[in-house]
Amino acid sequence: MEHNSARSIPISAAAEQLGTTARMLRYRESLGLLPVTKEQPTGRGHRHRRFSEADLSTVAAGLELERSYDITPTALSFALRVLSEPATMASVRAYGERLGRLAPRPARAMDFEKQKALRLLRQQGR
């Protein structure tokens, strides 16, 4: 008998359980919103994605975030990108500061001392 935790289902059954479509799940996968799979291609070289209970739970959590915050899958994908890429986060933060939606980060004492030292070096070079 198969253990429930090892059970996996095809994309069509996963979509039905999640209240969405297989096409939307494939779209979400293209955005990086599905758990990474380690399955090897089956059939004629095509990978037939299967979903474990953990996968279904993770996708359901993403769908709930979208509903709770009234955002699109694309917006959720970008939010994850901001959280995982420091350069993207810095760009978005700078934009938020320019808009006035985010307060500038407080200057740290070391930053102040560094700026002071650079000013002194520039003055000495004149």
From TrEMBL:
Name the record gives this protein: HTH merR-type domain-containing protein
The organism of origin for this protein: Salinactinospora qingdaonensis
InterPro entries assigned: DNA-bd_dom_put_sf, MerR-type_HTH_dom
Record lineage: Bacteria, Bacillati, Actinomycetota, Actinomycetes, Streptosporangiales
Residue stretches making up the HTH merR-type domain: 10-59
Pfam family membership, one: MerR_1
